[in-house]
Design goal:
A: alpha/beta; FAD/NAD(P)-binding domain; four-stranded parallel β-sheet; 9 helices; B: mainly alpha; elongated
C-alpha cells in the first residue's frame, strides 16, 4: 500500500489528485492538503473582476468531490517537509497546520511514499512597496481579490458617470513579474466595460509592463502567420491595444507604489512615475516558503528549493548565457534530484531560467518577465506526474514513461473581452512549443503551423466553453477524464 | 506634471487630442487597426462558427502534440 500526498488543490494539484485516484487501486491512498476549501478556475477571475461572474461561479467546494472520489482531503497548509522522516522513523512526512474553522491551528504529520508539491505561487506583493490589495493597487490573482477589485472598479464607473475623468493603470507590478496574459485580458475587459457604459471619453487606460515589447508574455514573444505575413505578437498585441484605446509603457519595472502614483524604472535607466485612480498590477511569484528538514532536524531547504522558494526538479540549473539556453534545460518528469519520491508541478517547480532574454537597466535592475506557467501546462504537468507515480506504484518500477517538457508542449492563450454569446471579442493565440526550440525551428523558434493569432467572437466562445468544460471536468462529472487538460 | 495631475514620462497620446497634433507621432498610432470589414467578419455568427471549429482543432492539435 502506498500513500501519495498532494500539496495544493489548484489546477495542477487537483488534476494530479484526480488522475492518481483514477489510476491507483483503492488499496493505495491519495491525500490532498490545501489551505483553501475551494477549487477555483483562475482564468475566469477576470470576469469576477469586471462583475460578470460571482465568486461561486468560478469555484466549488473540494470536500464533496474528494469524498465522492475517495480522496482524503485535509484543509490545511503544509509548514515543513521531512523527506528523511524523523530519527526514530525513516518514513518521510509533511507537517501540516489545519486552516478549517473546527481545527484551525492544529498541527499534524502526514506520512507519504510519494509527494507532489503543487502549492502554486506565493503572490509576492511585498516585493514592491505599496503593491497589492489592502495597499494601493488591486489584483485579480484570486477570486477574492477579483471580487474586491470589481467593487473598486464599480466605484470608478460611478465617479465617471458623475463627470470625472479617471486614469486606469493595468499591467505588471514588478520588474520580474509574469502572467502578462491575465493583466492584458483584464485591461481589455475594463476597456470593454467602459465602452459599454459609453464612458470612453472619461477614461485613460495605460498598460505598464516589464516586457521588452508588447506580446512578449514572458516567452520571448512569438511569430504568427497573418494576412499573408509572418508577424510578431508585438504587432498583434499593439493592434488590439490600439483598437481598445489603451496606451502602453513597456520595459518598465514598477519598484514602488504610493497612493495614486506608481514609480518605475525603464531599461534605459530612467526613473519615472505615473498617476492613477485605479490600478490592477500583477505581483511577482515566489515559492510559498516551505522549509525542509533532515532526519536530525537540520534545515535542508536549499537542497530541495531554489532561492526563490520554488522546488528544484530535473532541470539544468547551471548558470548559462542566454545564447547557450536550450529546450533541454527544461524539466520533463518534474522529479526532485535530491529525493526521487518528490515531484513539483505547475507554478511550484523552479524554471531553469527565463524564456525571455534577461535584460538589465544601467543601474543593474533585471527588467524581464519570469516564464509563464499557465493553466494548460500546469494541468498537463500535473497529469503526467500523476501517471508516472501511479505506474511506478502499480509496477514497482520507477519508470517515467510520460514526459511533459515546456520545450515540447504548446499553449493556447485566449484573451477575451466582454461577456455573452454575442457581445464578446477575444484574441486567441496558440504557440508550439512554449519554450522556443531554435535547434529544431531555426527560423522562428517555434512551429508556425501550430501557431495562430486572431481576434473575434469565436475566441470568446472558446473562453466561455473552456470555463464550463473545465469546471465540469474538475468536479469529476461523468467522463471527466476524456476532457484534455 | 500636466494639468490633469499626470506626470509626463514618455510618448503617450493625450486623452483629448489637440487639433494641431499629428496622430502619427505617438506609439499607439503605428500598429494596424481593424477596418469596418474586419470588424464585421469578427462578429458574423456564421463565419465565427467556422473559426470556432478551426481554432478548436488547432488547440486540440497542440494538446495531442504536447503529451508524450
Amino acid at each position: 500500500m502506498a500513500d501519495v500526498l498532494v500539496m495544493g488543490a489548484g489546477i495542477s494539484g487537483h488534476t494530479a489528485a484526480a488522475y492518481l485516484r483514477r489510476k491507483l487501486s483503492r488499496k493505495h491512498k491519495v491525500i490532498v492538503v490545501s489551505p483553501s476549501a475551494y477549487f477555483q478556475w483562475v482564468p475566469s477571475n477576470i470576469w469576477v473582476g469586471v462583475g460578470k461572474m460571482g465568486i461561486d461561479q468560478v469555484r466549488f467546494g473540494l470536500k464533496r468531490v474528494y469524498d465522492r472520489w475517495g480522496i482524503d482531503f485535509r484543509q490545511a497548509k503544509a509548514t515543513g517537509i521531512f523527506p528523511e522522516g524523523k530519527s526514530e522513523s525513516g518514513r518521510p512526512f509533511v507537517r501540516i497546520e489545519y486552516t478549517d474553522d473546527t481545527s484551525r491551528g492544529k498541527a499534524e504529520d502526514i506520512h507519504y511514499d510519494y509527494l507532489i508539491n503543487a502549492t502554486g505561487p506565493k503572490l509576492n506583493f511585498s516585493a514592491t512597496e505599496g503593491l497589492g490589495p489592502g495597499k494601493f493597487t488591486h489584483s485579480v490573482c484570486s477570486c477574492d481579490h477579483a471580487s474586491a477589485t470589481w467593487e473598486a472598479l464599480k466605484a470608478c464607473f460611478s465617479r465617471m458617470e458623475n463627470g470625472e475623468t479617471l486614469r486606469f493603470l493595468i499591467g505588471t507590478g514588478h520588474a520580474t513579474a509574469t502572467c502578462q496574459g491575465a493583466a492584458f485580458e483584464y485591461a481589455l475587459n475594463v476597456a470593454h466595460q467602459i465602452r459599454e457604459r459609453n464612458l470612453q471619453d472619461k477614461a485613460e487606460i495605460t498598460w505598464i509592463s516589464n516586457e521588452y515589447e508588447l506580446g512578449d508574455f514572458g516567452m520571448g514573444g512569438a511569430f504568427i502567420k497573418k494576412g499573408g505575413y509572418i508577424i510578431p505578437t508585438k504587432v498583434f498585441s499593439e493592434s488590439i491595444f490600439a483598437e481598445y484605446g489603451i496606451k502602453w509603457i513597456k520595459r518598465a519595472g514598477v519598484f514602488r507604489v504610493d497612493e495614486g502614483i506608481a514609480h518605475y524604472e525603464t531599461l534605459d535607466g530612467a526613473k519615472n512615475s505615473i498617476a492613477f485612480d485605479f490600478a490592477m498590477l500583477i505581483p511577482p511569484f515566489a515559492g510559498v516558503g516551505l522549509k525542509a528538514f533532515d532526519r536530525s532536524g537540520e534545515e535542508i531547504t536549499s537542497k530541495l528549493f531554489a532561492a526563490n522558494g520554488l522546488m528544484k526538479v530535473d532541470a539544468d540549473y547551471s548558470a548559462k548565457e542566454f545564447e547557450e539556453w536550450s529546450v533541454g534545460d527544461w524539466p520533463s518528469t518534474y522529479q526532485s534530484p535530491a529525493f526521487p519520491n518528490i515531484f513539483a508541478t505547475g507554478i511550484a517547480f523552479a524554471p531553469p531560467h527565463q524564456i525571455s532574454k534577461p535584460l538589465k537597466s544601467p543601474g543593474g535592475t533585471l527588467i524581464t518577465p519570469a516564464p509563464p506557467r499557465t493553466g494548460m501546462p500546469s494541468g498537463v504537468i500535473g497529469k503526467v506526474v500523476a501517471l508516472n507515480i501511479a505506474a511506478s506504484i502499480e509496477s514497482g518500477k520507477a519508470e517515467f514513461r510520460h514526459k511533459a517538457s515546456m520545450g515540447k508542449m504548446g499553449a493556447a492563450c485566449v484573451v477575451s473581452a466582454g461577456y455573452g454569446m454575442l457581445k464578446g471579442n477575444a484574441a486567441t493565440m496558440t504557440v508550439f512549443p512554449i519554450v522556443p526550440d531554435w535547434q529544431k525551428y531555426p527560423e522562428w523558434g517555434r512551429d508556425l503551423s501550430y501557431t495562430v493569432g486572431e481576434a473575434g467572437l469565436a475566441g470568446h466562445w472558446i473562453k466561455l466553453f473552456l470555463h464550463y468544460m473545465f469546471l465540469y471536468k474538475a468536479k469529476g462529472n461523468p467522463l471527466w477524464w476524456m476532457i484534455p487538460e | 506634471m500636466d494639468d490633469t495631475g499626470m506626470i509626463l514620462y514618455c510618448n503617450l497620446m493625450p486623452l483629448k487630442m489637440p487639433k494641431n497634433i499629428v496622430r502619427a507621432y505617438y506609439d499607439e498610432s503605428y500598429p494596424p487597426v481593424p477596418d469596418k470589414r474586419t470588424l464585421f467578419w469578427r462578429k458574423n455568427i456564421i463565419w465565427q462558427a467556422v473559426r470556432f471549429v478551426y481554432l478548436n482543432l488547432k488547440i486540440m492539435r497542440i494538446i495531442v502534440g504536447g503529451h508524450s
